[in-house]
Give the backbone structure.
Amino acid sequence: MSKAIKLTTLAVALSVLSGAAFAGTWSVGGSVLAQATPYKGIKTSDYISPVPVVNYESENFYFRTLAVGYYLWNDKVDQLSLDAYYYPHFFKPKDNDDADMRKLDRRRDTVMGGFTYRHNADWGTLRFNGSLDMLWESEGMRAEAAYLYAFKGDSWSLTPGVGIKWDSAKLNRYEFGVTSKESANSGLKRYEPNSSWTPYVELSANYKMTDSWSLFALGRVDKLSSEVKDSPMVNKSYSAIMWSGVTYTF
């Protein structure tokens, strides 16, 4: 079974590591990421994968594993960056355990690009993301807005958050739609979803063991909209990830 991990959330989650990096420094490490996907015929255990961590953070530029960005505005209160990140549409029919799902078309990988804006205040952090399919595989767009509040100690931080995600109709149709041709081949009903709104909750944690070594963890659960849940490709009402690992900063 393929071990590709859907990076919708991971690209946003990578910002968790940036708080531990000083300007002009590198951090490397290892991590494990698990995802519960909404597709039928896929086991959660099939999407547990090791993920190497390589990060660089400076005043004007960042690189975080599979995401890169350039800061247009970067201070302690506000950050605005142009971003690009690898986004695998991980559905591969030949890897699916459901006979009907194996007769659908493959959803191919792409690169999403757009912007991220963060505003930090005593009452919490506001985060906004907007991106589109730069390789035009889906011709789709996505936007997110979230509120986060960090609890901090001398060597640790714990940051819960709530947010909402909007996916365009083209993105949903690429990931969860069933065309007339696919319906005839598979026996699944034809399905053409519209755009959708998806609420989610997240929780991230960092623990600094030494000046160089840190532990991190992040979890997120998305409550799927009816546009996704009604797809004949889907048998869950949620999607979720859990990501944790260790980094060394130098």
Observations:
- Confidence is low (pLDDT under 50) at residues 1-8.
- The chain has five helices and 13 strands.
